């Protein structure tokens, strides 16, 4: 089967979405539900990802929708969600970016037994941080997420900033066949050894987007979640100057996005304030230019009439910080260097696999592995042997050195880390993040306090890379 190019599918999808006047409003999340006291079912479903003129697509989904319900709770409230597994295989829910007790983290064989078909598991923890988060399985996530299992979790502030509209865009990227089905090449070796399983159909809230209606002159809070299994986004907003108010759910000093562009590698989130132009009829094109020479229009914001107010980035109020994010003690912090190797065009020729030295070719061809951290290509069999053991309450610097030709968004569970430097340059505001992108042949230095006891995953959020060995366990306490 020849795959359509991303451009073809996007172009087709856009044209169709434009004609499908009766469809929902793409880009506007459907009603949120409380994340307290509900059951979420993972199972097979059919949904209309591509618009009205295409057949529905077989997916795996939470509660029959892609993305799953937006789960909302207030800060301090309990998230109490029972996962019910209607899939034919094991699954779990991982609460990406939440600082929670280890037993609630949703990593099979590490923090809990996998939830077998027909079984349930009750997740209960306090939402201590307000912000934009998301949830997805941690069992064979390179396939389960790629088939549609993901959703957003919003923890509301006591006093949210005053805006006219709160928009949530869960970005995803599906690899579709010409027939409109999800391609089933989840363990494709080319994807494994390159940039991961890039799709050809970018969706916002499970729809190929075209236009999102907004009101002229209004102020929008835009919550962005990158739930794609491999694709990064670098979103430009034309003449708008988005103000960034939070990254990965943690407030940052309000600042204009550098060059007006917002970068989201897989797993990352950003909360923006956008002041829509006051002239009714004006259209703002949101363009993704993450990959050189492959810019495309993701979606347009179309300003309707009814211009109420016009505000300015300078008056965007900062979010109140979340409690208890401990400042690292830089004087005493111990540094761990994490050498990241593997994939095509790298200098890595072998790695340790389950305790044995193995050549890259054999790793790829026989074991589906291609990546390593500090020379170890981690498998699930050896995962329980920690990559590092950290003292509870102590400060650490992680120095990621990427000796590969690809970017790797590295995600640490259960903590947020301050991003100090990327490629040796200071990152403005040293934001707290749970996922830090390490550029190709580049470097990222982060610092944090290991204050959450337990065994926590550290892995690349390009899920084919994670599955291909770029993961490990950080033991705290
Ligand atoms: Cu969002 Cu370990 O993942
Ligand atoms: Cu990676």
From TrEMBL:
The yes or no answer to whether the keyword Oxidoreductase is present is yes
MF annotations from Gene Ontology? copper ion binding; oxidoreductase activity
Q: Which residues belong to any copy of the Plastocyanin-like domain?
A: 56-158, 183-280, 384-476
Q: Which keywords does this chain's UniProt record carry?
A: Metal-binding, Oxidoreductase
Signal sequence, renumbered to the chain: none
This protein's superkingdom? Bacteria
The record's SUPFAM superfamilies line, in alphabetical order, gives: Cupredoxins
The record's listing under CDD domains reads: CuRO_1_CumA_like, CuRO_2_CumA_like
This protein's GO CC annotations: outer membrane-bounded periplasmic space
Q: Name one Pfam family in it.
A: Cu-oxidase_3
The name under which this protein is listed is Multicopper oxidase family protein
Which organism is the protein's source? Futiania mangrovi
């Amino acid at each position: 089967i020849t795959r359509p190019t991303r451009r073809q599918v996007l172009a087709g999808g856009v044209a169709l979405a434009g004609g499908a006047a009766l469809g929902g409003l793409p880009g506007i999340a459907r009603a949120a539900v409380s994340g307290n006291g509900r059951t979420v079912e993972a199972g097979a479903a059919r949904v209309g990802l591509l618009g009205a003129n295409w057949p529905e697509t077989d997916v795996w989904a939470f509660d029959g929708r892609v993305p799953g319900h937006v789960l909302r709770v207030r800060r301090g409230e309990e998230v109490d969600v029972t996962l019910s597994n209607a899939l034919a295989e094991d699954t779990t829910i991982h609460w990406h970016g939440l600082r929670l007790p280890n037993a609630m983290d949703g990593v099979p064989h590490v923090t809990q037994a996998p939830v077998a078909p027909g079984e349930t598991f009750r997740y209960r923890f306090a939402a201590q941080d307000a912000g934009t988060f998301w949830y997805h399985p941690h069992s064979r996530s390179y396939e389960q997420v790629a088939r549609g299992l993901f959703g957003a979790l919003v923890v509301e502030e006591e006093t949210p900033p005053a805006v006219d509209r709160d928009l949530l865009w869960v970005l995803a990227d599906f690899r579709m066949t010409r027939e409109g089905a999800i391609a089933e090449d989840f363990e494709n070796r080319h994807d494994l050894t390159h940039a991961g399983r890039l799709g050809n159909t970018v969706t916002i809230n499970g729809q190929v987007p075209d236009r999102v209606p907004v009101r002229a002159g209004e102020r929008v809070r835009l919550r962005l979640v990158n739930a794609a299994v491999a694709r990064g986004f670098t979103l430009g907003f034309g003449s708008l100057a988005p103000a960034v108010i939070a990254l990965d759910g943690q407030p940052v000093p309000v600042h204009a996005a550098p060059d007006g562009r917002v970068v989201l590698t897989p797993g990352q989130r950003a909360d923006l304030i956008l002041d829509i132009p006051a002239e009714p009829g004006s259209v703002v094109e949101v363009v993704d230019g993450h990959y050189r020479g492959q810019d495309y229009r993701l979606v347009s914001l179309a300003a309707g009439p009814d211009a109420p107010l016009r505000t300015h980035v300078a008056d965007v109020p900062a979010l109140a910080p979340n409690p208890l994010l401990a400042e690292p003690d830089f004087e005493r912090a111990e540094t761990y260097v994490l050498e990241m190797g593997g994939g095509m065009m790298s200098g890595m020729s072998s790695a340790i696999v389950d305790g044995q030295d193995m050549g890259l070719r054999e790793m790829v061809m026989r074991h589906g592995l291609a990546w390593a951290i500090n020379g170890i290509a981690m498998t699930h069999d050896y995962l329980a042997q920690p990559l590092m053991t950290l003292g509870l309450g102590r400060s650490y610097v992680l120095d990621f050195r990427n000796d590969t030709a690809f970017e790797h968004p590295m995600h640490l569970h259960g903590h947020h880390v301050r991003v100090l430097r990327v490629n040796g340059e200071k990152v403005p505001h040293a934001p707290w993040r749970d996922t830090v992108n390490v550029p190709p042949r580049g470097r990222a230095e982060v610092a944090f306090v290991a204050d959450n006891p337990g065994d926590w995953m550290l892995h690349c959020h390009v899920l084919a890379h994670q599955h291909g060995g770029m993961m490990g366990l950080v033991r705290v306490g």
